[in-house]
Write a structure and sequence with these properties.
The protein has about 190 residues and is α/β, with parallel strands linked by helices. The chain contains six helices and seven strands. Strands 1, 2, 3, 4, 5, 6 and 7 form a seven-stranded mixed β-sheet that branches. It is elongated.
Length: about 190
């Protein structure tokens, strides 16, 4: 049995994997520049970052399965940041208020023999219209910190979601159905 290395520092991804009975042998986050290229669209951006992270970590762990992922929140063609300040989070939440947006999850797995499989999963999320008091209460919670698009669906922002089409776990940080399928297809945990 070859070990699985999670190329992510996200505690949410670790929790999601545990939910389906997968415990990585190690967590080794890739230090990747996540700045979008000029005119890079959200889907290709998420896929590129997942592959970039997987390749960087694979070089440090020969003979292991490497799992990397990236989550991008987009409104139209616009890639929303991982909120680092209250102002960034406020701008994201205001933009998403009363609108539909997409959460794109790029997943990349590199097998011990070098085979690589990627998936791009899209979930469509619709927020209700938020008033200023709701936005400010969410900002005050601090839950937005470091989250793509400035929100965590598995927390207080759950009440903002009027409709969701697609993978819920993708919005949390890792599309489990697709990830499990890739790992099984490459022989991880089989036999």
């Amino acid at each position: 049995m070859f070990p699985l290395i999670l190329a992510s520092a996200s505690p949410r991804r670790l929790d999601l994997l545990a939910q389906i009975g997968i415990v990585p042998a190690a967590v080794d986050p890739a230090d990747a520049d996540e700045t979008p290229f000029t005119r890079e669209l959200p889907g290709p951006h998420a896929a590129r970052l997942a592959e970039l992270k997987a390749r960087a970590v694979a070089a440090r762990h020969p003979g292991a399965f490497i799992l990397a992922a990236d989550t991008v929140v987009s409104c139209g063609r616009r890639i929303l940041p991982k909120a680092e300040t209250e102002q960034q989070a406020r701008s994201c939440i205001r933009l998403l208020s009363g609108r539909r947006h997409r959460v794109l999850g790029g997943v990349c797995v590199i097998a011990p023999d070098g085979r690589m499989v990627q998936r791009l999963v899209t979930t469509v999320v619709t927020f209700k219209h938020l008033d200023n008091a709701e936005i400010e209460a969410y900002i005050a919670s601090g839950e937005w910190d470091g989250k793509a698009g400035g929100y965590a669906i598995q927390g207080r922002a759950a009440v903002f979601v009027r409709q969701l089409s697609g993978s819920y776990s993708n919005v949390v940080g890792l599309p489990l159905y697709e990830t499990d399928g890739i790992l099984r297809g490459l022989g991880h945990g089989v036999g």
